[in-house]
Amino acid sequence: MIDLANFSRMALCHRNTPLEAMPRLTEHLGGPNLFIKRDDCTGLASGGNKTRKLEFLVGEALAENADMLVTQGAVQSNHVRQTAAAACRAGLDCHALLEHRVTTAGTGYATSGNVFLDRVFGATLEYRDGGLDMNAEAEKLCEKLRSQGRRPYFIPGGGSNVTGALGYVDCAREICEQADDAGTQIDWIVMATGSTGTQAGLVAGLFALQRDIPVMGISVRQPKDAQIKAVHKLAQPTAEAIGASDLPSSKILVDDGYVGEGYGIPAQSTLEAINLTARCEGILLDPVYSGKGMAGMIGLIRNNFFETRQNVAFLHTGGSVALFGYEDMIEPMLGADEKRLSA
Q: Which member of 46, 77, 219, 269 is catalytic?
């Protein structure tokens, strides 16, 4: 049993998000039995995993009497979009730093998708060159704002600190209850892992619940060893915050074989996963996180990593809004389908 009642929280999330079977994708890939946890359906600003984190982060901001949220992310950041919407719900201002981390995505990348919605939600935006310590840049901005009489609450990239990770502690409980109610044993969870908070919270929650469900993180950016170290660095204090201690680093599993050329750059396997999931299940993935995560799960299945009889759940972290920023990359894939049909 996990008790989160002592943590400040603001209700932002549609819950429980569905835990659905994916029968056509299962059949296409020849097993195992595939399920999908639909955290693209969390509700806020078209949904996504950051909404669960923001319930606790915004709750803490309000408890501290903040008057604005300050955060950072890549230009097409799902996190910034959801933070901007959460600020609207809470009656706070939102200011975000956007990093030029991707330079090859095409003409719509800088203005469409998440960036357009950031502006719809009234966030004010600043841009930074790629390669900077963006959390440090945002912290410096907060110091400047405090000197001007503002009361900023800083949210790190991805909402990935102990407070934010509590959202996925709660999701671990939710998944376990849904599986138990359905009489289904979940043998594996697969997910994209980036800023670490989602995987860290999920692993900490399962550890505290004493549920031995391994979580395979498909890295979207860092090499395996660096990502394992980063996730464990956050998972351990998150577990301690909910009364569980000594979370071993062996609980952190990462596959870095689907990063491709780097963060935010879809590999061919990413585009295939987006296409296959859309055509088999009518579900949209994003080119930065969930697309690479699904590519990893598909690759593991093709390499016989799972047993055919096992039940594998994919955590959908949302982000389909970003598809519009990657139209130049995705359009050729659609054109190829049209040519085959007309041939």
A: 77
